[in-house]
Structures are given as structure tokens and as C-alpha cells.
Amino acid sequence: MDADSLLLSLELASGSGQGLSPDRRASLLTSLTLVKRDYRYDRVLFWGRILGLVADYYIAQGLSEDQLAPRKTLYSLNCMEWSLLPPATEEMAAQTAVVKGRFLGDPSHEYEHTELQKVNDGDKVFEEEVVVQIKEETRLVSIIDQIDNAVAVVPRGVLFKTPFGPVHVNRTFEGLSLSEAKKLSSYFHFREPVELKNKTLLEKADLDPSLDFLDSLEHDIPKGLPASSPGSWSVQMERGHALVVLRSLLWPGLTFYHTPRTKNCGYIYVGTGEKNIDLPFML
Q: What are the pLDDT digits (tens) for 2-31?
């Protein structure tokens, strides 16, 4: 959710239990304004909160003028002091994949994992148990990146792609119509497209290249399930059809909201940072 409209956005997402105390809201309003100024971001998003056993991580992201350029991610434990996280890498994802359970809430905490590694001793090769330490901060970076790639959402039309490539905020976007807002096909993944690149020119013929340049949520079917599966999203109309809410079943805690015929839209994650690996068995 955009930090410039934080209070309204939190109110729209409050139906999913994503509220914050008045003190936290006031702190975020002040600190995120300073983050935008000091880091010279074009936009700052309040990404959400990852719940820890001892403390919670509050997450914000800074965007450049090109909305699909790599986002900068920051975290805070008190909503006032923010620390910049390093970019996510495939190596981080591989390292942290073995860590299970809840976050502690201490970025310096180190998880210990025992793994077998091959050791050469002359002509002999044998396996030896090695204790590998993984920092919670590294796990935090990896989980945020996974959630972004899987369930960060924007409605169709809120962004537009210029003929030269960069993606900008569409200042003329006035919201989806009520009928469009009910369709999962009206919402896109907020990341570089993957499925779209595999489509043929014939399949792209009816697409508007300035608006339909991202992957649609309607194709989010867990692996191994038929195309007729209900997918990994729940779409609900709330407040007398005045608000559409999308909830991720794959990453419980991710909520996207949009008020039809208005510019009000955004997403927030409030959860434990744990993926629902049982989803294919639940559908």
C-alpha cells in the first residue's frame, strides 16, 4: 500500500485484521515520509508485517520512477528506525529453504542446520556432517522476495508501459468497473512477466501492449492441478459491493484491496512468513 495514503489504505484492509495501533500508524506516517525523502524514492510502499515470536518485522519498499525496476526493501522493529536489506539472490533462497518454523524477530539470530558435504582425502571421498549457520536477516530477505514474486498484485490499468520500455504509474487510472473488479483476470502480478513471455504472437494479438504487459492472476493454479481448479486466490466483495478483496491461499496473510471506480488499491502482508505448502491438497 502506498505510504502517501497509508491511513485510508489501512482502513480498507482492516477487514482482514491487518490493523495497526494508533501509535504505530503515527510512527509510520512520519518515518516513511523521511525514508522517501532521504533515499529519494519515487514512491514508498508499506509492504506489511512479518510476525515474530519476540518482535515483528515492519517492511517498507522504495520504488524508482520505473515501477518494475528492482525494489529496495527496508525493515524496522519499531516503525521509526529503518535498515536497508540487501537484494535477494538464488543462493539466499537455497540457503534458507532448509529453515522451517516461525521467525524469532532478531535479525542477528543464527539458525543452525546440519548437512552432509563431500570431502576429498587423497583418493578417497567421504561424506562429513557440517553445521551451517544462517542469519535470520538472510531468511527475511528471501521470504519477502518469494512473497513479492508470488502474490504482489496490481489492478489492470494502474501501470502503463511506455514504447521505450519503462513502466510508470498511470495518472489517468480511475479504477476498475464493478463487473471488471469481480474478475481475477483484471489483476496482475506486480513483477516482471514470466507466463506472458511464453505466449505466441497469436495469443498476444488481443492484448494492449501498454496495459497487458504483466502476468494475470487467473493462471495461478498450483502445480499438478487441472486448469479447472479454483486456483490460489479468494475473491470477495465487501461493504455492500463497494470493496473487492483478494486473499492469497498460497501465502496466507496477503490481502489486496480495491474500491471499484476509484484509484484506491494496494496490498499488505501480515503473517508469519510461512507458505501454505498443503494448498494443492486443499483444493
A: 988 988 888 888 766 567 888 999 999 999
pLDDT digits (tens, 9 = 90+) for 166-181: 999 999 999 999 999 9
Higher pLDDT, 200 or 153: 153
Tell me the three state secondary structure of residue 198.
helix
What is the rounded distance in angstroms from the CA atom of residue 72 to the CA atom of residue 86? 8
3-class secondary-structure state, position 102: coil
**Is 246 exposed, middle or buried, given 0-12, 13-18 or 19+ CB atoms closer than 10 A?**
buried
Residue in 227, 275, 246 with CA at minimum distance from that of residue 182: 246
- Answer yes or no: are the C-beta atoms of 76 and 60 closer than 8 Å: yes
Confidence of residue 254 (pLDDT cuts 50, 70, 90): very high
Instruction: Show the domain range for 68.
Output: 3-282
pLDDT in the model for residue 13: 83
Phi, psi values for residue 156, rounded to 5°:
-60, 130
- Which residues make Cβ contacts (< 8 Å) with residue 16, sequence separation at least 6? 245, 247, 255, 270
How many domains are contained in the chain?
1
**Contact predicate 274/15, CB 8 Å:** no
Place of cell 552432509: 116
Contact 14, 33 (CB under 8 A): no
> Contact at 8 Å (CB) between 196 and 217?
no
Cα–Cα distances (Å) from 155 to 29, 61, 214, in that order, read: 25, 19, 10
Given the C-alpha cell 475473491, which residue does it identify? 235
- Kindly give the pairing relationship between strand 43-50 and strand 265-271: parallel
pLDDT at 230: 59
At residue 234's C-alpha, the angle toward residues 147 and 88, to 5°, is 5
Q: Which of 244, 70, 94 is nearest to 155 (CA)?
A: 244
